[in-house]
Structures
1.
Amino acid sequence: MAALFTGKVLTGNRERDEVETERELGRALENKVLLLYFGSGQCPRCRQFAPILKDFFLHLTDEFYVERASQLVLVYVSRDETEEQQSAFLRSMPKRWLAVPFGDAFKRDLELRFGVSEVPAVVVLRPDGKVIVGNAVDEIRRMGPACFRNWQEAAELVDRNFLLAEDFDELSRRSITDPFRRLKYKVEKTPEEKKKGRKEDGEESP
């Protein structure tokens, strides 16, 4: 996953902003499911979704809800109009979030790479950078933290120690549906990878 950010920097969402070094990024992203959250603090739909995403993230990573933080990291890719707007939004979000620095052209590269045209959008990636879900906004709204297990299995990061409180009553029934979840979360290709694949197969670009 760190390869996606090679030569780039991410800002840590802390009391005092700190730029993550490449070594720190490697540790932060290694062996984790990565969420790229494309949004804006001024977008009405984003303002509705942001509290849901915040709660989702906290339920998976905060010791108040889970004994051990799940294998999850989130990077905010903003469409905020000013640096002050981006900073104000991040101050209301969990401190574990990372962010692409304001004004960094890399934000546009990420939008193009993952075909993001509207916000809010949450792209879910495996540790190797492959796409698990192109936009998980509706899934997060509908399922909440429970959908993380599906992504975890698709990313082949099975952590038997991670269980939500309500999971203990569902263990037997869940085993029946596991094969269907694995089929549903077949890793997606990015628009760039699909285009490259067509060229390698000798197909003409449209």
2.
Amino acid sequence: IEAGFSEMRNELKSRDALWRRIQLECQQLHTELLKIREYKDMQEIQMKHQSSCVQLTEQLENQSTELLAQSQECQQQELKKIRTHLYREEQSHCSEQERMKTEISDLTEELHQKEITIATIMEKASLLEKQLKTELEMKDKLLAKQQLLDFQYKVIKSENTHLKEMV
């Protein structure tokens, strides 16, 4: 998009330079026109030459007026086309920016929801881990108690066997 804008700026600068050159030529024509009028005034003696100078002056005036009008009209049309194109490009760029903002917002919301889900899962995992540790401790105690009872049972059984033998 920046390259397009740069290209359009360069095109405008080029057309502006052309416009200034045409204006300079018009000024030069106008200066020449003034010189011709001065010459005409100095040569009042020569009527034939005077009428031809007037005709040339009028032709030059008409031509310069026509050239200026054509140049201005062409320049205005080109400027209008460029402005329209630039406006469309800016609208397209704005639309793209809005779409990207919306997409970023949606992705941010999705990320936030995932972070919440991860935090919830981590919390549940922590609770389950605590429950598991508690159950493991209880099972360890029960196992130790079971082993103690087994040992006591063996001791009693052994005493019983010993007592039976003695009887």
3.
Amino acid sequence: KLFFTDYGNAAKVERCDMDGMNRTWIVDSKIEQPTALALDLINKYVYWLDIYLESVEVVDYQGRRRQTITKGRQIRHLCGLAVFENYLYTINSDNLSILRINRYNGTDVQALARLDNAKEIRVYQKRTQAAVRSHACEADPYGMPGGCSHICLLSSSYKARTCRCRTGFILGSDGRSCK
């Protein structure tokens, strides 16, 4: 799945399949300007920060069990969001510090370090990487991902895929080659 925020005409948090199909709103009320999003892949939670409502909130992948982690004026200066173990990590754009926030109760906020011009944060650690099973976009014997000549996107499950073409090309009638 692909998760993303939108604060155009109607602010929301959404999810869809990697090929863009099955687009679903998972948060569409009491939300104004969601600017960062982080996933807990193990427990299947979506965290986001809303700089207009000055809050960090969480829901499960279906948009249920919504909770506010923390609220306050300091939220409007946050950008980027990552989750690892018991904490959320974010950047305070006001003083360029990396913050660590307890994700269960919003307390235990600590400034960890300062960085110049940071706007995004990611945690790279082996435990944050989900185990990969074989999937429909694996390279075929000719080295083509999922048998697609350009781009292979996972669809509704790891067993299904959709082929797409780079800009300037169109998908052939075989559904795999680009012309």
